């Protein structure tokens, strides 16, 4: 018995060693000249940084909402034309497609997003946005780059500037796109429907980077496979019977019904979904009523819904409608209107496995193992996923943007870091931009021909 157990242990150990060897052998090897290229790229970035810093602060101070990025697109088009790219404007309304051909080789797409958020900035930065506009509903709103798209654009331009200076070191075609309306999940679809992969070279690979507000600058984070969630926008119009606040018995109060619906919705995740299957149902906006003593006739709720599995998404959307109608029926109210906005649906982002491993290997070679770290999936959403659905392998990685000391203090129970989409969030431009330009330049060069 003892002898058989020893043999089994030996066989298991041998199998594990063999498996580890096979896995190691299967790991992709980065292009052998990347360390030498990095030695050239770093001084180029250092020399270029004052220009990029000025560009970044200009973009931060002049944000534009989704599908309104006219001035932003014009500035980026000017930058890319000066570098020798063939630039096509107004692709997908306000999008840009910039193509640079440099011999036979792979086609690599690099994407940036351009739009900002309807937020009044409270960072206190000397270059903070003071922009105010009226939104689609006619309300005045602030406009702020609270998701780092200004950093994305700056790194996009910086990467293009590096690659143009290294044209004698690579072969292939660059397709740099500046995409509108990522924040409402509509820009990628608009560009694809406008012929992005028909009118222009279809890429063999697509890359993008994104700011990480909870990671130290100088670092890169990655997720292989499912990375970001499905996102749906749902509107519920709760209908009632208005009247005087002092005579509620003569009304059907839609505010009370809306409150019941909001509480009921929380049970979709807690009581109707497998605890290991991630679901988020958040009510982000409630509008109803005009005065203290008037019960309104309707209340408007706006929801964001996040899921990973398509089957879970279907169940959650059906459950929202079921619960809203049940709450109205219990109050003898008219049936509510429940609308799922297909124009704002964003499918889950799944980073291509081989491309992600190939990119990570390259980044580790240049930045170091300790600077390139895995990251678990999160419930945010990104319409970069639509390029994957169109048949292109995609990889989006994240760059840290905050001071390491502040990050460590927050981990030790200090002041929490402001998250993305906060009116207090801002990245530290240097070295965030330098890291982003270096990382994206290396990722692209790793894919191009020689």
Q: What's the helix count?
A: 12
How many structural units, i.e. domains?
Answer: 2
What is the straight-line distance between the termini? Answer: 60 Å
Strand content: 25-35%
Helix/sheet category? alpha+beta
Tell me roughly what share of residues is in helical segments. Answer: 25-40%
What does the average pLDDT come to?
94
| Low-confidence segments | 1-25
Largest sheet data: 8 strands, mixed
| CATH fourth-tier homologous superfamily of the largest domain | Zn peptidases
Number of strand elements: 18
Order of helices and strands: HHHEEEEEHEHHEEEEEHEEEHEEHEHEHH
Compute the CA-based radius of gyration.
Answer: 25 Å
State the name of the first-level CATH class of the largest domain: Alpha Beta
* Spatial sequence of strands, sheet with the most strands: 1-2-6-3-7-18-8-17
Q: Which descriptors apply to this entry?
A:
450 residues, alpha+beta, Aminopeptidase, Alpha-Beta Plaits, 8-stranded mixed β-sheet, 4-stranded antiparallel β-sheet, 18 strands
Topology at a glance:
Blueprint: H1 2-26, H2 34-61, H3 70-82, E1 86-91, E2 95-102, E3 107-113, E4 132-134, E5 140-142, H4 149-165, E6 172-179, H5 187-193, H6 196-199, E7 205-216, E8 220-222, E9 225-228, E10 230-239, E11 243-244, H7 254-271, E12 279-288, E13 294-295, E14 298-307, H8 310-330, E15 337-346, E16 349-351, H9 353-367, E17 372-374, H10 385-389, E18 394-402, H11 404-411, H12 429-445
Parallel strand pairs: 3-6, 3-7, 7-18, 8-17
Antiparallel strand pairs: 1-2, 2-6, 4-5, 8-18, 9-16, 10-14, 10-15, 11-13, 12-14
């Amino acid at each position: 018995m003892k002898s058989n157990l020893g043999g089994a242990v030996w066989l298991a150990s041998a199998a594990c060693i063999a498996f580890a060897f096979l896995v190691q052998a299967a790991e992709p090897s980065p292009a052998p000249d990347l360390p030498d290229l990095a030695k050239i790229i770093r001084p180029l970035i250092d020399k270029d940084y004052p220009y990029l810093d000025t560009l970044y602060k200009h973009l931060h101070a002049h944000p534009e909402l989704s599908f309104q990025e006219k001035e932003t697109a014009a500035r980026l088009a000017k930058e890319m034309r000066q570098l020798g790219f063939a630039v096509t404007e107004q692709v997908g309304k306000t999008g840009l497609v910039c193509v640079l051909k440099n011999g036979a080789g792979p086609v690599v797409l690099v994407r940036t997003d351009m739009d900002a958020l309807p937020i009044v900035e409270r960072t206190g930065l000397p270059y903070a946005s003071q922009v105010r506009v009226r939104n689609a509903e006619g309300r005045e709103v602030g406009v702020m780059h609270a998701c780092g798209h200004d950093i994305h654009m700056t790194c996009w331009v910086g990467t293009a500037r590096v690659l143009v200076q290294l044209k004698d070191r690579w072969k292939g075609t660059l397709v740099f796109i500046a995409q509108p309306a990522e924040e409402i999940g509509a820009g990628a679809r608009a560009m694809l429907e406008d012929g992005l992969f028909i009118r222009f070279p279809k890429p063999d690979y697509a890359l993008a980077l994104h700011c990480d507000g909870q990671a130290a600058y100088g670092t890169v984070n990655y997720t292989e496979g499912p990375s970001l969630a499905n996102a749906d926008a749902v509107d519920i119009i709760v209908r009632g019977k208005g009247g005087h606040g002092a005579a509620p018995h003569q009304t059907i109060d839609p505010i009370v019904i809306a409150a019941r619906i909001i509480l009921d919705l929380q049970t979709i995740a807690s009581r109707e979904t497998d605890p290991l299957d991630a679901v988020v149902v958040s009510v982000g906006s409630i509008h109803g009523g005009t005065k203290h003593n008037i019960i309104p006739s309707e209340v408007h709720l706006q929801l964001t819904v996040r899921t990973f599995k398509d089957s879970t998404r279907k169940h959650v959307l059906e459950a929202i409608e079921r619960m809203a109608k049940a709450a109205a029926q219990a109050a003898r109210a008219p049936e509510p209107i429940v609308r799922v906005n297909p124009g704002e649906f964003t499918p889950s982002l799944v980073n291509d496995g081989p491309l992600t491993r190939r990119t990570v290997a390259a980044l580790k070679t240049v930045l170091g193992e300790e600077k390139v770290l895995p990251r678990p999936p999160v419930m945010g959403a990104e319409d970069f996923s639509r390029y994957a659905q169109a048949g292109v392998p995609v990889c989006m990685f994240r760059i840290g943007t905050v001071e390491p000391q502040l990050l460590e203090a927050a981990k030790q129970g200090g002041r929490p870091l402001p998250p993305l989409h906060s009116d207090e969030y801002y990245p530290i431009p240097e070295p965030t931009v330098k890291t982003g330009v270096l990382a994206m330049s290396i990722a692209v060069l790793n894919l191009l021909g020689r």
